Amino acid sequence: MTRSGASQPVFLRTWLVWTAGFFAFPLAGVAGTAAAGRVDGPMAALLGGLVAGLVLGAGQALVSRRRLDPRRWIPATGIGMGAGLLLGASAVGYGTSLGELALMGAITGVVLGVAQALALPRQVHLRWAWAAAMPVLWALGWTVTTLGGISVDNQFTIFGAYGAVTFSALSGLLLHYLLPYRGTTDPTEAVAPVVAKA
Q1: This prediction's pTM
Q2: Cα–Cα distance between 190 and 36 in angstroms, integer?
Q3: Which distant-in-sequence residues (6+ apart) come within 8 Å of 6 by Cβ?
Q4: What separation, in Å, do the N-terminal and C-terminal C-alpha atoms of the chain show?
Q5: Residue 31 to residues 13, 24, 36, 67, 125: CA-CA distances in angstroms?
Q6: Of 25, 44, 30, which is closest to residue 85 (Cα–Cα)?
Q7: Helices in the chain by DSSP H: which ranges?
Q8: Angle, nearest 10°, between helix axes 42-63 and 3-20?
Q9: 49 CB contacts (<8 Å, ≥6 apart)?
């Protein structure tokens, strides 16, 4: 069996575990809403985003198979979501139309993406690919959720299950490219993909 063939089951298991982590999104939404209520003002956006981000970051760190250091990833996700949702929701006047939520998601993703990129292990050389992808994926998450008929007019802190599955599946592919699972138990030892010698 080739090295590539042997690595495929590992990739699939790792990707499926990360994708299954979409369950962290509804939990983050419940926590954010419990802490701040509807996202209808600056403080609600900041606090709700912060709390939702902390829960989401914990969930992502848990399903990353130790590729992400929770000491860095969780606070980065909380701060990024809090600041990002504050800017994004304010920019669209806390509106909930498809276009407004997509724009809010993109702005949230800009701030969140930078924060999370900085929290990736130092050995990841293409960390800014993560930052560049987050605005697109976060906007897509809100778009899929809205088109799926979720009651987004309730001004949630984070998109629902439809968007969460979409986001998790796609971001899992990117995470594998940037930070493939190598069985390490220390997130600081994870490295970016290495090109095999001919």
Answers
A1: 0.87
A2: 36
A3: none
A4: 17
A5: 29, 10, 9, 25, 34
A6: 44
A7: 3-20, 24-36, 42-63, 70-91, 98-119, 127-147, 161-178
A8: 140
A9: 32, 39, 81, 82, 83, 84, 85, 86, 108, 157
The identity of residue 15, as a single letter, is W
Question: Whole-angstrom Cα distance, residue 176 to residue 134?
Answer: 15
* Predicted local confidence at residue 116, as pLDDT: 98
The per-residue pLDDT for range 3-60, each reduced to its tens digit, is 454 467 788 999 999 999 999 999 999 999 999 999 999 999 999 999 999 999 999 9
Mean per-residue pLDDT over the chain, rounded: 90
H/E stretch holding 180 reads: none
**What is the Cα–Cα distance from 158 to 32, expressed in whole angstroms?**
8
Q: How far is CA 190 from the centre of its chain?
A: 19
